[in-house]
């Protein structure tokens, strides 16, 4: 029974991933994110809105109506900016409710104030539910689509995807040739894998310029593992090769993939 449940879970997960579609954000929103703007104005606006909502609620609870009014007016002004920055979203804003909030706070009407702020907050939640993930994927993840990397083996320019495929194929063919007893072919594939792995610094270094990043991914420990891998390849020692590759896979490949590959794959899921 347990095996059946696991199988059903796997099937449903695969089906969900296949059918996953992200709702694209309005084009206007890109005006407030890099590369068009380095100020991240829309994110800053969201932070101000969140702070204003908390400021209103906390002061109402303390019966500090003067401060509550200050935060309610700030909330109204910032909330209405959304429609000015993204025209498509202007029509879904709860303008009446945010106006009622300010009036309710002025008249110290706690019941109306709380119901009004709940209505405004609900509109925020609905928007976040529809677009938050899409905005994260689109604006907070590097775009590798136009990035090429010089391949140290062939001397040609490869796309990131083709480069990764070539490097992965080197790793697999090295293992296959060793198991098949073809040590010369295994050495060639192994050395090409190392060349391509070390060649990654030319791409990663464009963004990861800090010494800490370099140390984590291409520092002393990584160099030790590459040295051990090279020696194991020369000697045809499959167990040591697998041990070195396991460390590289867990401490280099997986860490990078978990940050970049997931978002890169999600970008392919934008659709209507």
TrEMBL record:
InterPro entries: Cyt_c/b562, Cyt_c_II, Multihaem_cyt_sf. It comes from the Bacteria. GO terms for biological process: electron transport chain. GO terms for molecular function: electron transfer activity; heme binding; iron ion binding. This is Cytochrome C. It comes from Persephonella hydrogeniphila. The lineage of its organism: Bacteria, Pseudomonadati, Aquificota, Aquificia, Aquificales.
């Amino acid at each position: 029974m347990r095996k059946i449940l696991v199988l059903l879970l796997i099937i449903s997960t695969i089906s969900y991933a296949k059918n996953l579609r992200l709702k694209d954000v309005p084009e206007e929103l890109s005006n407030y994110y890099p590369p068009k703007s380095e100020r991240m104005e829309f994110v800053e606006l969201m932070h101000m809105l969140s702070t204003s909502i908390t400021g209103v609620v906390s002061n109402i609870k303390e019966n500090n109506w003067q401060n509550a009014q200050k935060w309610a007016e700030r909330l109204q002004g910032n909330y209405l900016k959304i429609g000015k920055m993204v025209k498509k979203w202007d029509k879904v804003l709860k303008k009446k409710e945010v106006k009622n909030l300010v009036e309710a706070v002025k008249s110290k009407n706690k019941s109306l104030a709380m119901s009004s702020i709940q209505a405004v907050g609900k509109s925020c939640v609905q928007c976040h539910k529809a677009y938050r993930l899409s905005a994260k994927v689109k604006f907070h993840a590097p775009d590798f689509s136009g990035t090429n990397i010089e391949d140290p083996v062939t001397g040609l320019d490869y796309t990131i995807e083709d480069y990764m495929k070539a490097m992965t194929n080197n790793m697999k063919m090295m293992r296959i040739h060793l198991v098949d007893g073809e040590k010369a072919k295994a050495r060639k594939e192994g050395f090409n894998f190392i060349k391509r792995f070390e060649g990654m610094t030319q791409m990663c270094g464009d963004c990861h310029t800090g010494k800490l990043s370099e140390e984590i991914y291409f520092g002393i420990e990584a160099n030790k593992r590459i040295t051990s891998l090279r020696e194991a390849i020369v000697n045809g020692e499959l167990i040591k090769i697998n041990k070195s590759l396991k460390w590289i896979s867990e401490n280099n490949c997986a860490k990078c993939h978990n940050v970049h590959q997931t978002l890169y794959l999600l970008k392919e899921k934008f659709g209507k």
